[in-house]
Each structure stands twice: as C-alpha cells, then as structure tokens.
Write a structure and sequence with these properties.
It is built from 16 helices and 17 strands.
C-alpha cells in the first residue's frame, strides 16, 4: 500500500528472462512484461503513480541469484531514494530464491518501497500480503528446482549417448548446429595446433617449457564469439588452461559427465598413445612436486627389503662424537628387529656400491649396447601386450556405453532398467580406471626408451658430472637412473634395476 502522504509515487518496472532466446525479436518477452506493467501503472494514475524513465531489463539472467546488472542498478537506486514502488509482471521475475527474496524485502522495507505484481494481487504492507507473497515465492523456487533437475537429467542422457551438451568451447573443434541439436566438428587448423601441443609436451616433459614454446609459436586458447557478438578466448595458455587441455578426453572422441566417460559422436584428434603419454608425464610431474626436497638421502624411495617386501628408509644412529647412517627395513622398525633377518644396511657403503655399479656399466660399451637392445626388445613386447589389454577394455567400455544409452530413456519409468544402467556405469568406471592405469604404464615405458648411443655417452661421462653435483642433485639423478634396489639378506646380495631404457643389470655382491 502506497503512503497517502506522497502525492507522486515513482514506479520502477523490472523485467527479466532466463535465456537470450528470442530477445533479438522486435517485440520480445521483456517488451511484453514492460507493456503490461506500464498499463497497470497508468491505471493507477489517479493515486499519483508515474513510471520513471529508467529501464531495468535483465535479458539472459537466471532468477536463482541476484548477480544481474539491471537488478543491482535498481537496488542501488532504491538505496539512493529514487524509487517508491517496484512493479513486476510476476513475482518470480524479481527472484526465484526464497532466501534471496527475504533479503530483498528487508531492503525494500528499510527504504519504505512497495512491491506490486501485475498478475498476482497482494499488498506487501500487510501480514496476509506477506504470507501470500511467501507462498507464491515458494512455488516459484520449487518450479526452478524442478527445471534444474530436468535440465541435469537431459544433460546426463545426452552425454551417455555421446552428444555434446554444452560447456566451454574446445580448441580444435567448432560448434555446429543441426536439426534438434548441436555437435562438435573438427577445425583442421586448430586440430593441428592441438597435436603440436601434445607433441611439444611429450618432447619436453615440462609444462613451463611447453608454455614457452606455445607463446613463441603464437598458439593461443580457443577464440570464438558469443551470441551477443563478444569475442572470447584467444589468450596465451597458462598452467591451468594447458593442464585442462592435456587432460581433456574430448580429444579422444569421448565425452565426460561427472566421473563417467562415454564414447562421443565427434571425431578424435589425438590417439590413445599420445594422450596416455601426456597423462603419464603429468602424473610423474605431480609426484615429483610432492616429493620432499629437504635433506634427501641418496637412495630414499628406491631401496626395498626383498625378504619382507617393504621399503627401507634412511635412519640415523648417534653415539658419542659420531653419527651413523643406515637404511632400515620398515617392518623391522615397526614390529621389532627380530621380524627381519637383515633389518639394516650401512648407508655410506651401500651408496658407494650403487654409484660404483653405475660407473662400471660404462666400461664395456659393447656389453652395454647389447643390454640396451635386449631391454628395448623386452619393453616393446610389454608395450604391445599392454595395448592389447587396453583394446579389450575399450571394446567393453564401448559396449557398456551403448547399453547405457539405450537404457537411459527407460530408466525413469522402470526401476529394474535404472538398476541395470547403474551397474553399466559402475562397470564402465572400473574399466576406465584400468585403461588410465594402462596408459600410464605405456607412457612410462615409452618415456624410458632412449637411443643406445645417447645412453652410452651419458654413462661414460657419468663420473665428472657426478662429482660436480650437490647432495640434492645427486638424489634426483639417482632417481632418474635407478628404478629399484632390492636387498636379499638371505643371500647377502644386492639387486639393482636401472631406470634408463629399463636396463636390468643384475649386480650381485656382498655388503659388509
């Protein structure tokens, strides 16, 4: 109810539409709302109502929150005392959130501003009017939540069938339209850039080096125009956007929804091996970032007790005026020394022994080359076996993806079908996790396949390089060269598995 003491009531018309669809028309939804509100104001001219000249129109903004430019401008004008009454076509045009609406009403009441809905008669100055308003708003919020649920279900069903269901534009693809839906089509120029990005990262193994190379080549993020004609993207990659690109399954011709990956309708740009190599390198990089850099022991993380099957860690033992270093079996350390026949090894002697074995490899280049060739042949066989296993699992994933897509349409009406679909999705998740592990294993093996001449040369120059390094650099290099060291206390022997080219040099010697 408008205060009788005022001769003129300044009315602001607020309009809103959730989507931009149809706003380009000469007479759109916002125009219709404004016309209805203006007619209502004109009908109240005898009480002093007038429409202020400013327009408050939010086209393409949801009512689920208050992050709307025209709404924010109107609320500021209310605070400034420029408005006496707000007129809306329906109450849900102002807000669909009960919590937000309570806050809005607090501001209106504090500034003595009334609210009128053209199609829903109520008076906000009375208790009955406020009750009616809250009831209407509750239904508006309920409707918004129902629409959100239906939208999520629609997106989930589309993803299960491999369709593009919205999201950020992806470098390498253009968004095309066809009857009833949109789809991704390969952009040949951008697809070449995507392939270059994966190749550069595979060669350098470094996010920062890749970013530097992309800037030099002028390769940027996806550039496109919005419906309103605004230019988006086309900026230099940063660590976040580059990681997002390198882990995007869209480039495999697949789509992802939550934790599930489905076969997509679009064409792949990157093959499984290239994508798997990138994931393996990213995983290694994350692991190296979390590894402690403080006072590293030379063989930490490499040494295992063969008898107990557990790791051996660096340990100190102090005596008067002297400190001794050991590598200790974790089982013996936790459960007692009598649980392991060889609970500890002296660290200095063991470290010298391992370094001497690395030096010794380079003394006979003929033997070294034979080892390299033998190891490469073995590794190629392992990679081929892993690829076959991956193909089996991917075939099963495609089968499950089709079955899930067929079941999606009937799941809401048939509980048994819904349970089957859930089972299909769980199986897909399991197989996808296994494929990810296989890709990581393949990437790790391919990363280790070095040229025999390069390997021989690097080991031949090992001695002067080693002497020039500090403790932290030596620990890093040891982790690059050695894959694992096993201590066989029963035989009093050391077994060293080298990392580079996966050379397995079975070096046996007693350690005093």
């Amino acid at each position: 109810m408008i205060r009788a003491t005022k001769e003129i009531v300044r009315c602001a018309i607020y309009t809103r539409k959730s989507t931009e669809e149809g706003l380009e028309q000469d007479f759109n939804s916002l125009d219709a709302q404004r016309e209805a509100a203006l007619s209502y104001i004109n009908s109240q001219k005898h009480t002093g109502w007038i429409s202020i000249g400013d327009s408050y129109d939010d086209g393409g903004f949801t009512g689920g929150n208050t992050d709307r430019p025209a709404f924010q401008r109107m609320m500021q004008d209310i605070e400034d005392g420029l408005i006496d009454c707000i007129v809306v076509y329906k109450i849900d045009r102002l807000s669909r959130s009960l919590l937000d609406f309570v806050k809005i009403m607090e501001v209106l009441e504090a500034n003595n501003v009334s609210l009128v809905s053209v199609t829903q008669q109520f008076n906000t100055t009375s208790s009955m009017g406020r009750l009616t308003l809250n009831i209407l708003l509750s239904f508006a919020q309920f409707e918004r939540e129902i629409i959100s649920e239906r939208t999520r279900d629609k997106i989930a069903a589309a993803r299960r069938k491999g369709k593009w269901a919205g999201g950020h534009r992806v470098l390498g693809y253009d968004l095309k339209e066809r009857i009833g839906s949109k789809y991704l089509a390969v952009n040949s120029r951008e697809a070449d850039q995507v392939k270059q990005i994966f190749e550069i990262y595979a060669q350098t193994g470094s996010i920062m080096d890749t970013l530097r190379s992309l800037r030099e080549k002028g390769i940027t993020t996806k550039k496109y125009h919005t419906k309103k004609g605004k230019l988006r993207g086309g900026v230099n990659f940063d660590t976040g956007t580059l990681r997002t690109l390198l882990t995007n399954v869209t480039y495999l011709g697949k789509v992802k929804y939550k934790d599930q990956v489905y076969e997509g309708e679009h064409e792949a740009i990157v093959d499984e091996d290239t994508f798997g190599l990138a994931q393996g390198l990213l995983k290694q990089h994350r692991h190296s970032q979390h590894r402690s850099q403080k006072n590293p022991a030379l063989l930490n993380g490499l040494l295992r007790c063969q008898h107990c099957g557990c790791a051996m860690t660096h340990h100190y033992s102090s005596k008067p005026n002297k400190r001794y270093r050991y590598y200790v079996c974790l089982k013996a350390q936790k459960q007692g020394w009598n649980t392991c026949p060889g609970p500890s090894l002296p660290a200095p002697e063991l470290e010298r022994f391992v370094v001497d074995q690395i030096r010794g490899i380079g003394q006979d280049t003929g033997v070294l080359r034979d080892c390299v060739q033998s190891a490469l042949a073995k590794m190629l066989g392992e990679i081929e076996s892993l690829k076959k296993e991956r193909s089996k699992k991917e075939r099963r994933i495609r089968q499950l993806s089709k079955q899930t897509g067929k079941a999606a349409g009937r799941a809401r009406q048939d509980e048994a079908v819904a349970q089957k679909m859930q089972s299909y999705e769980q199986q897909m998740k399991q197989h996808q996790d296994e494929v990810t592990k296989i890709n990581t294993q393949i990437a790790a093996r391919e990363k280790q396949m070095l040229n025999s001449d390069e390997l021989v040369g690097s080991i031949e120059t090992f001695d002067p390089m080693w002497n020039a390094l500090g403790p932290q650099e030596k620990a890093k290099l040891m982790n690059l060269l050695v894959k694992q060291i096993s201590w066989d206390s029963g035989q009093d022997k050391i077994h060293i598995t080298f990392h580079q080219a996966n050379i397995e040099a079975l070096t046996q010697a007693g350690v005093n």
